[in-house]
Design brief:
This protein has 307 residues and is an alpha/beta fold. The protein has 2 domains: 35 residues; 267 residues, Phosphatidylinositol (PI) phosphodiesterase (TIM Barrel), CATH 3.20.20. The radius of gyration is 23 Å and the shape is globular. It starts with a helix and ends in a 9-residue tail after the last strand.
Length: 307
C-alpha cells in the first residue's frame, strides 16, 4: 500500500470519527436539555427571606433556582406588584408608624384600592414570619414586577449565572372580581404588557387556580405558556380538570401530596410538565424526583440538590 493511500485512509477515518463525536455531543446536549429539572424558588425563597421581594429572588438565584415563582396583584393605578394576598397580610406587615397590622385591619388595606406609592409605606420584612423561623428580618416593601425582572436579570448576570425563568401566579377568583382585583381580561392584559415590555415571553409561565385567566391567556396570548394549579383537596380527576380548562397547558402543578405514579404517567401521556408545590422536605423532594416529576416548587431553595 502506498504512503499516499495510507494517509488518505487515515484522513477518512479521522473525519468519520469527528462526525460521530459531533453527532454524539449534539445528542447528549439535547438529552441534557430534555431532562433538565426545574427547581423553583417559592415566592423567591420564602423560608429564608421575606416572600415576594427582590432580596428573596436574589437568594433563590444564589441557591441555584432555575425559576423564580411569585404572585402578583394590581394596584389602583394599574401597576403590577408582587403580593400573595391582594391586601396586606397581618402576619408580616408593619404600618407606616411601625405598628403591626392586625387581622381585623388587613383586608381594609386593599391593594386594588391603593396607589403603588401608598403601598410603599408598608413594610413586609422587618417582622419576619412566625411560620418560617429561619427567615431573615429585613426592611422591605412590595416591589413592582418590572423592578423584579430588571433586578433579578441584572443580579444573575453579575453572578455569572443563567438568566432565571419566571413563574407568575395571577391572584384572582370570581367572588372578588372588581373588589380585590380587576376582571381576568384586564388583569392578564396588564400582566402581559409588563412581560412583553421586558421581552421575557420565552422565559415566563403564568399559573393560576382561576381557569378564567388561563383560558383568556390561551386564547389571546398563545405564545405564553400556562400552568394549571390544583389545590390539595380538589376531588376531580386530572381528566376532569383538563376538560374544565378546555386545553392542555404547558404544566400541571398540584399540591405535592396528590402526586403518585399514575399522575406522572398521565402527565407524560399528555406531554405536560408536572411541577408540584410546595415541597419543603428533602426526603419528599427525593421521592418526587424518583417518581419522575419535572420540577419542584419549594420555600427552601437551600434544600435543592443537583445529582
Amino acid at each position: 500500500m502506498s504512503y499516499q493511500l495510507i494517509n488518505r485512509n487515515l484522513l477518512v477515518i479521522l473525519f468519520a470519527g469527528l462526525i460521530v463525536f459531533s453527532c454524539t455531543s449534539i445528542k447528549q446536549n439535547k438529552m441534557e436539555r430534555n431532562y433538565s429539572f426545574d427547581w423553583q424558588g417559592h415566592r423567591g425563597a420564602r423560608g429564608l427571606v421575606p416572600e415576594n421581594t427582590i432580596p428573596a429572588m436574589y437568594k433563590a438565584i444564589d441557591l441555584g433556582a432555575s425559576t423564580l415563582e411569585m404572585d402578583v396583584v394590581i394596584t389602583k393605578d394599574k401597576q403590577v406588584i408582587l403580593s400573595h394576598e391582594p391586601f396586606f397580610n397581618h402576619e408580616i406587615t408593619s404600618k407606616p408608624d411601625g405598628a403591626p397590622v392586625s387581622i381585623q385591619e388587613e383586608k381594609q388595606l386593599n391593594i386594588f384600592q391603593m396607589s403603588f406609592a401608598a403601598t410603599q409605606r408598608y413594610d413586609v420584612g422587618l417582622r419576619g414570619n412566625a411560620r418560617f423561623p429561619q427567615q431573615q428580618k429585613i426592611p422591605v416593601t412590595k416591589p413592582l414586577l418590572l423592578q423584579v425582572i430588571d433586578s433579578a436579570d441584572a443580579y444573575a448576570r453579575q453572578q455569572h449565572k443563567a438568566l432565571p425563568f419566571y413563574n407568575i401566579e395571577t391572584k384572582t377568583q370570581p367572588a372578588t372580581d372588581g373588589i380585590f382585583h380587576p376582571d381576568p381580561k384586564s388583569f392578564v392584559d396588564l400582566l402581559v404588557a409588563v412581560i412583553q415590555n421586558k421581552k421575557i415571553t420565552d422565559r415566563v409561565t403564568i399559573q393560576s387556580f382561576d381557569i378564567r385567566t388561563l383560558q383568556y391567556l390561551h386564547q389571546q396570548y398563545p405564545v405564553i405558556s400556562t400552568v394549571l394549579l390544583i389545590e390539595g383537596d380538589d376531588k376531580r380527576t386530572l381528566q376532569q380538570q383538563l376538560a374544565d380548562l378546555g386545553y392542555i397547558p404547558y404544566a400541571y402543578s398540584p399540591h405535592y401530596s396528590l402526586v403518585n405514579a399514575a399522575m406522572v404517567a398521565e402527565c407524560k401521556k399528555h406531554n405536560m410538565q408536572l411541577i408540584p408545590w410546595t415541597v419543603n422536605n428533602l426526603a419528599e423532594m427525593k421521592r418526587l424526583r424518583l417518581l419522575g416529576v419535572n420540577g419542584i416548587i419549594s420555600d427552601y431553595p437551600n434544600l435543592f440538590y443537583f445529582p
